[in-house]
Amino acid sequence: MSRPARGTRAVHQELPPALRDAVDDFAEHLSRVRNRSAHTVRAYVTDLVSLLDHAVRMGCVDLAELDLSVLRSWLARQRTTGAARTSLARRAASARAFSAWAHRAGLLPADVGATLASPRAHRELPSVLRADQAAALVEAPTRLPPVPTSTLKTPSGATQIRATPGGPTPDATTGTAEGAAAEAVPLRDRVLLELLYATGVRISEACGLDVGDVDHGRRVIRVFGKGGRERSVPYGVPAQRALDDWLSRGRPILAGARSGDALLLGARGGRLNPTTARQIVGGYAEASGLPRTSPHGLRHTAATHLLEGGADLRAVQELLGHSSLASTQIYTHVSVERLRAAYRQAHPRA
Fold first, then answer.
1. What is the pLDDT of residue 298?
2. Is the distance from CB of 50 to CB of 74 less than 8 angstroms?
3. Is 218 one of the annotated active-site residues of the chain?
């Protein structure tokens, strides 16, 4: 039996051996052929194990016995147990992907999931910051102490607790390694916030940037998005200034043996972790008195401001790395809703 793809858990041990093999082979296909992330592979495998467990309970001991009625029964059971529409839509997509793969692999006589319908997922309009709020957020590291994330270990091995907003500011003038690191961290935080808002990249894409991915002459960054797709995204002058400061005065302080070519570094010298990056964004938003904000919220904000400024929808799709224009069109609804809200507030006969 082939090994499960990296990033999946052995959640299918109760299935018959032939079905376990199918799960492992499908996970391997997603990981190595489709180049899906470990998170996506885990989600698909979890859905598939649930489906096959349901099929076994219905008497399907061989994969070739899987048919459309079993798939529909599985989704109906999910619905009765309270699964949300978004979850049902994702699970139906997992079932269709597995059915198509199993048919091509000769494990199913037909692609039984091709006609499987699923409820349309309800898409809530994302919340976005105003332009002045976004500016206040990206400038926060220049006027606030570093946000609390974790214990800060300087490259020398010393330990220092990160300052909290409103608390004492670390002394960056002592000439010690601790003071130097405390001076470098705000520069890192500033360039992180500037890049997220300037480019609208995903947090995983920002943390995955290498120094060589930045083209300073053309002011563009090379981004590797979902499925390993590469795209070039421009950024503006403020982000360029933040990059220059970070690369000349910040990164050399935090860089160490674990840094490699990573553009953004954690306090211990390794590549900045997306979880820490989320804490940075949320912490500065809270310390600035802004609405609760995440890196994805900054992505929504960047896209909405681009469209409100007159950018073409196709151009925004390319910048965000959306494979489908439908994913980008939600931002047109955000802009319309913001316009309606302003109209209702300002017009005397609204």
1. 92
2. yes
3. no
What's the pLDDT tens digit per position in 88-102?
Answer: 988 999 999 999 999
Q: Catalytic site residue 343?
A: no
For residue range 257-273, list pLDDT tens digits in order: 999 999 999 988 999 99
Q: Is 299 a known active-site residue? A: yes
Residue with tokens 């909290």: 164
* Of 71, 39, 40, 53, the residue nearest 11 (C-alpha): 53
Which residues touch 67 (CB under 8 Å, ≥6 apart)?
112
Catalytic hit among 202, 251, 268, 271? 202
Q: In this structure, what DSSP letter does residue 30 have? A: I
Contact 200, 319 (CB under 8 A): yes
Which residue among the candidates 20, 190, 271, 299 is catalytic per the annotation? Answer: 299
Tell me the one-letter amino acid at 42: R
The CATH number of the structural domain formed by 131-345 is: 1.10.443.10
**Cα–Cα distance measured from residue 176 to residue 56, given in angstroms and rounded to the nearest whole number:** 64
Which neighbouring-strand residues pair with 271?
Answer: 265
